[in-house]
Amino acid sequence: MARIRFSALPASRRAWLSHLFALGLGLVLTLSGQFAHAALEEPDAFIKRLTSELMDIVKADKSILSGDVTKISVLVDQRVMPHVNFQRMTSSAVGPGWRQATPEQQKRLQEEFKTLLIRTYSGAVSQLNDQTIVVKPVRAAADDKEVVVRTEIRGKGEPIQLDYRVEKSSDAPSGWRIYNLNVMGIWLVENYRSQFSQEINAKGIDGLIASLAERNKANARAAK
After folding, report:
1. Whether this model's pTM surpasses 0.85
2. What's the pLDDT at 122?
3. Which of 12, 69, 73, 93 is the most buried (most CB within 10 A)?
4. Reading across the β-sheet that carries 132-135, which strands appear in turn?
């Protein structure tokens, strides 16, 4: 597959891919906080179990399908975050600027980035009507600490590539945490790193925080 430059895509296409990023994150994570396993799951089994559970719940909940941001936010806080290495995700997206940020700035960056993903996810779940998720077997050694799990969303049209980077984590219920997501050749962390780097170069860390906060406020106004 040829590498796609996100910035070169039309605005409508970029918005659609952003929805898929958030949708994919939600697909493997939401509701996973209900489960605590004594034994380490295989990473593909972890993804397959959680996607199936999420699809069933989301399709049965009309308020989530309609994009109820409040309900989705609570759901993500309670069920998603325990299974994401969100500090790693945020620090990787911010790039070298993360090390320059104060602890308070790092906290604000995580808060605003989290809100951005939740808001985007709220606009994506309404697309979960007829799709199914196919999880491909993982080819990895037993002692691998980080693994890529490859999946496809199948429904109308061509299948959509959706891959996940997961890391072993002894304190995660399943034994794994998500730290990156790939839609059709575009990795979420690398995509945001490009955007955030421009903001930091132009306005510094506080400028990036302000930009994310303003984007989140604009998304909230649009939702109303």
Report:
1. no
2. 64
3. 93
4. 132-135, 146-154, 160-168, 176-183, 186-187
Q: What are the tens digits of pLDDT across the range 93-139? A: 999 999 999 999 999 999 999 888 877 766 666 566 677 889 998 98
What pLDDT score was predicted for residue 30?
Answer: 47
pLDDT > 70: what percent of the chain? 76
Structure tokens at 180: 């990156």
**What token pair was written down for 135?**
């999880």
**CATH T-level fold of 10-223:** Nuclear Transport Factor 2; Chain: A, (3.10.450)
DSSP β-ladder status, 160-168 and 146-154: antiparallel
- Domains of the chain, by residue range, sit at 10-223
